[in-house]
TrEMBL record:
It comes from the Bacteria. The lineage of its organism: Bacteria, Bacillati, Bacillota, Clostridia, Neomoorellales. The keyword Acyltransferase does not apply. One of its GO terms (molecular function) is thiamine transmembrane transporter activity. Keywords: Membrane, Transmembrane, Transmembrane helix. NCBIfam families: ECF_ThiT_YuaJ. InterPro entries: Thia_Transptr_ThiT. The chain crosses the membrane at residues 29-49, 61-82, 94-114, 121-144, 156-180. This is Energy-coupled thiamine transporter ThiT. One of its GO terms (cellular component) is plasma membrane. It comes from Metallumcola ferriviriculae. Pfam families: Thia_YuaJ.
Length: 195
């Protein structure tokens, strides 16, 4: 769990230097990013089920969604990237180098797009999950076409394969977010602090 926090620290240190210094707000953003990426890594290890060539259902996306909703698209994209890199470093299913990039850093970076729809975050969660799904489907078409049953379109096969775990994970994520938003004070905490 130290790897995501170290990557976050380096990114914010150098990013803070470029933007003219580190503020209390930036420090809080950095700490929350590290904590939420670490939580996503931990939740990734608690899988409800896992597919044979990769993909699983867990609560791993929720911390990245929260990060993007709270701090915006840029921070959400960075958090998703760090989560994807962390997965690569801690036991991803890698068959080809480009497949590894598509299925991990690229796919999970796309979860940060949730921040584009902060006020309508259920739509943002759905759109970001679909974007992640597109990266996985593309990876399936390019790198796993050999597993497509004879006579079936490779795009349909990849869509069915990846949808079989992403759709339940989306439903689970939206359900948990619905429960969280009903908790007293949760939505106030989702607003970033002022300077």
């Amino acid at each position: 769990m130290v790897i995501p926090q170290a990557l976050v620290g380096l990114w914010f240190y150098f990013g803070g230097q470029i933007r003219g210094g580190v503020t209390l707000k930036n420090i809080r953003m950095m700490v929350e990013t590290g904590m939420l990426v670490g939580l996503a890594m931990a939740l990734n290890m608690l899988k409800l089920f896992e597919m044979p060539q990769g993909g699983s259902v867990s609560l791993e996306m929720i911390p990245i969604f929260i990060l993007a909703i709270r701090w915006g698209t840029g921070t959400g994209l960075i958090g998703g990237l760090l989560f994807g890199v962390g997965q690569l470093l801690l036991g991803a299913k890698i068959y080809y180098p480009m497949q590894a990039l598509l299925d991990y850093p690229i796919a999970f970076t796309l979860l940060g797009l949730t921040g584009l729809w902060r006020k309508h975050f259920y739509f943002g969660i759905t759109a970001a999950t679909l974007a992640r799904g597109f990266a996985h489907v593309l990876s399936g078409v390019i790198f796993f076409a050999e597993y497509t049953p004879v006579g079936q379109n490779v795009w349909i096969y990849s869509l069915i394969y990846n949808g079989s775990y992403l759709l339940p994970e989306l439903v689970l994520s939206v359900s948990v977010m619905a429960i969280l938003t009903k908790q007293k004070g949760f939505m106030q905490e989702m607003q970033p602090m002022s300077q």
